[in-house]
Specification:
The chain contains seven helices and two strands. Helix content is 60%, strand content 3%.
């Protein structure tokens, strides 16, 4: 796999993509990739090194690895996963103090969810947790 942004090579403005890239790979790498257009290809190895990719997997292993990751995530508390994703995504949109407050609000909202007690109880008892399918408002 490789990554590139061809906008400028075809006479288009690259405006939204760089906004998402800058916090992830930095201004310099974003400028290089976006201003070089079709000549700014980033290899899979470089993408891993700069944080544009999180993991490299051989093409023939991709499906198995994806299913393994999905299985591991789906074994966790659905509500905890949902709120964790919210916290992470909001942290990319809010100033740090606001993101931290939002995180605390999510933690407090989860305290009364059945999974908040089931997880520790199952851990102490040495068994797999039985997650609730309750979805709070």
């Amino acid at each position: 796999a490789s990554f590139l942004d061809t906008h400028v090579s075809v006479g288009q403005v690259s405006a939204l993509e760089p906004i998402a890239l800058v916090p992830r790979i930095g201004v310099g790498r974003t400028l290089k990739m976006c201003l070089l257009g079709k000549n700014g290809r980033v290899s899979a190895d470089e993408a891993l090194w700069i944080g544009l990719a999180d993991e490299l997997v051989a093409p023939e292993e991709l499906r198995a690895r994806s299913l393994a990751l999905a299985g591991q995530i789906s074994a966790a508390s659905p509500n905890a996963v949902r709120l964790t994703k919210r916290a992470i995504w909001q942290s990319t949109q809010l100033p740090r103090a606001d993101a931290e407050q939002y995180g605390w609000d999510l933690l407090r909202s989860h305290r009364s969810h059945p999974d908040a007690m089931e997880g520790p109880r199952a851990f102490v008892e040495g068994r797999r947790p039985e997650w609730s399918d309750a979805w709070p408002d």
